[in-house]
Design brief:
31% of the residues lie in helices and 26% in strands. With 323 residues, the chain is of the alpha/beta class. The chain has 2 domains: 170 residues, 3-Layer(aba) Sandwich (Peroxisomal Thiolase, Chain A, domain 1); 143 residues, Thiolase/Chalcone synthase (Peroxisomal Thiolase, Chain A, domain 1). The strands form 4 sheets. It has a 5-stranded mixed sheet with strand order 1-7-6-4-5, with helices on both faces. Strands 8-13-12-11 form a 4-stranded mixed sheet, with helices on both faces. Strand 12 and strand 13 form a beta hairpin. It is globular and about 55 Å long.
């Protein structure tokens, strides 16, 4: 059978680093409070000229270089984002143009913080369905542009950045030992909309709006939802937490990451954590974490890697792949 195998990875971050101390002059908060409740120590904030598309392009070029490929080798550009450069065209089409591509196809996917898991699962379907041989999957966000910088409960949590993978269809044996995407499990439940949303949009207010969140409610649901889809992925592949080499979670909150891993019996040394470095970068957080862990040699070819995320909607999902 055809599997969607990771050929390359890449990441991009804005130039400006904002440590927690800097936020003390903006809202009533403290470095100690932020670290204790979230695990975040700093985040990157996009400056003038830095956009979701520009960061996405940088991450894409880095992933292509890592894969030893060029834009000519790509059939589909798929971007997971909640902060597009424009209402339309899609940021993916913008990045396609920036890469000098006039072939193939490109589109955006919106599932907020779960976006990258949704996007890899979607790319896998396009590859296995024969529509594309190689897909550039990008998670890119500039959440700083939709934050209410007077709301101390949200503005301290988020950051900007982008990450990318190049997926390639390869003939495989069809066993759990195959490299590539092995299984994906996606969920959503719109009854939770008011717990995490943006209070604007073209069809309602005609404005971009600001992010609004009921933090305690999100936390209350997160561990159970994440556990549900990870257990579904284990069941579908007849694997367990013991078989896993790495858990790469969405980097929203250190307490959610630790709580989920503990409930699943995954030891801390198998969990990739970058929330302290990047904050919550929504759809960019998983590919950024993958780039850090693969770049420093932790994630190696043949490793069994679980991706998981939960985001506004609510949306949530897990995807198991062999690197």
């Amino acid at each position: 059978m055809i599997r969607s195998v990771v050929r390359g990875y890449g990441a991009a971050l804005p130039k400006r680093v904002v440590p927690n101390k800097e936020l003390e002059s903006i809202v009533e908060t403290s470095d100690e409070w932020i670290v204790q409740r979230t695990g975040i120590r700093q985040r990157y904030i996009a400056g003038e000229g830095e956009t979701t598309a520009s960061l996405g392009e940088q991450a894409a070029r880095a992933a292509l270089e890592n894969a030893g490929l060029t834009p000519d080798d790509i059939d589909l550009v798929l971007v997971a984002t909640s902060t597009p450069d424009n209402t339309f065209p899609a940021t993916a089409v913008n990045i396609q143009n920036r890469l000098g591509m006039t072939h193939g196809y490109a589109f955006d996917l919106q599932a907020v913080c779960s976006g990258f898991v949704y996007a890899v699962a979607t790319a896998d379907l396009h590859i296995r369905g024969g529509m594309a041989k190689r897909v550039l999957v990008i998670g890119a966000e500039t959440f700083s542009r939709i934050l209410d910088w007077k709301d101390r409960t949200t503005c301290v949590l988020f950051g900007d950045g982008a990450g990318a993978l190049v997926l390639e269809g390869q003939e495989s044996e069809g066993t759990i030992a195959d490299r590539g995407v092995l299984t994906a499990h996606l969920r959503s439940d719109g009854t939770h909309k008011e717990k995490l949303y943006v209070d604007g949009g073209p069809s309602t207010t005609g404005t971009v709006g600001h992010l609004r969140m009921e933090g305690r409610e999100v936390f209350k649901h997160a561990v159970g939802m994440i556990t549900d889809v990870i257990e579904a992925a284990f069941a579908a592949t007849d694997t367990t937490a013991e078989d896993l080499d790495w858990l790469v979670p969405h980097q929203a909150n250190r307490r959610i990451i630790d709580g989920s891993a503990k409930k699943l019996g995954i030891p801390p040394e198998k969990v990739v954590v970058t929330v302290d470095l990047h904050g919550n970068t929504s759809a960019a957080s998983i590919p950024l974490a993958l780039s850090v862990a693969a770049g420093d040699g932790r994630i190696k070819q043949g490793d069994l890697v679980m991706l998981e995320a939960m985001g506004g909607g609510f949306t949530w999902g897990a995807l198991l792949l062999r690197w």
